[in-house]
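Table S5 (text form). Sequence records supplied for joint modeling of the four-component complex.
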Amino acid sequence: MEKTATEFTDKQLAIIDAAQKLFAESGFDGTSVRDIAHEAGINVAMISYYFGSKEKLMEAVFEQKANHTRIKVENLLQNENLSPLEKVNVLIDDYVDKFIAQQEFHRIMIREQLIEKNNAVATLIYELKKRNQDSIKKLIHEGQKGGAFKKNIDIVLMMTTLVGTVSQMITSQRFYREMNHLEEMPEPEFQKYIRKKLSAHLKNLFKVILTYEA
Amino acid sequence: MEKTATEFTDKQLAIIDAAQKLFAESGFDGTSVRDIAHEAGINVAMISYYFGSKEKLMEAVFEQKANHTRIKVENLLQNENLSPLEKVNVLIDDYVDKFIAQQEFHRIMIREQLIEKNNAVATLIYELKKRNQDSIKKLIHEGQKGGAFKKNIDIVLMMTTLVGTVSQMITSQRFYREMNHLEEMPEPEFQKYIRKKLSAHLKNLFKVILTYEA
DNA sequence: AATAATCAATCAAACGTTTGTTTAACTTTA
DNA sequence: TAAAGTTAAACAAACGTTTGATTGATTATT
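The corresponding structure-token record, covering 428 residues in total, follows.
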């Protein structure tokens, strides 16, 4: 049974957005509830009033934003007009797009994955990764059955490269800008630029991993 | 001119090690100076006494540990018994080894790269990345001149995949363990295992990026 | 229709802790 | 005995959270 999505009021959503922004910039411990209240233009007490605690607010951020991170593969599996490799390419585009569009949330994800102790958010991340992993697995196995992909593929390692490359690009995009002398390029254009670069790069990598024999 | 390495006493090194461990586990803001003092078995005041501030202690951690992260390519360039691709493979092994061996420090690096504001540590990371980038660039250009590598290679993007894949593996190694049903494997053996896996995987990727035409 | 009661929303202020850092007294070392 | 090392205690500031009063709109009672 699918978990029923909590409904947030506009005011709650404003707090969640402010929290996401600041958590992405300075991390959970580096952001105070007063910072969040100021960013959202509300009184500090409202955070406890609506969410119970700072920790619970972080969970609300995940509840509200994590859906944008989920890979959807059902329609792809049924589609008979695309080859297995084309399907993987669609999936890569989808993933890169979501990652670029939701950078603030993904910065939080990257940080939270580094935390050692098991809290509620860690569990959410684990389940999200597991679900994405399973989606990919289905797609790959389909391609393997038809003979389009080779047999021995380490899917988890492959996903590590996908997620890792995109994460690292998000993390060091300013560095990427400078190394390629793109300081003058307007931000929206640059975002399109790295999206295109990443997409082509990853498609090329995946084609090799999936089809060429080592 | 090379910056003269600061000499730390044994006691200072103990504090630095304790700080590295806790910063890696819980982040800079998630670790208190009292935590560090307790871990190192010293009085809180000693941190201010020796390092001036918590911030400066973090810089000392970098000063002491960052050298292990630097890619060394000089000997490799002069070696005439290895092909360009073999040299790249040596470099990948070298990088993966350093990363696995210095996981605590690299966790700190991954976290600090996410911080938006420019502090002293951010500058250190930038220079480290720049230096590593330049080292790789030399090696690639050498291979390109001899015709072993293709012409249009996005070296920054390539490094993004190298660093990103290894970082993501460090970050989610517990996940990797469970997905491959390796919960029973002893920790040291598992570390060797992922080092080997990562190395083979990345060598395969780089061979493709560097030699095959898109 | 007028009045009383109830409610969630909002606020400034205060709560008790914990934070990084400093002080001043004491001990060890050279 | 002067300098360096070490300590418990204290410091102000910042932290997450709670409190109690006030608001304004809605519901119930007369």
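Note: The domain at 70-211 of chain A is CATH 1.10.357.10 (Tetracycline Repressor; domain 2).
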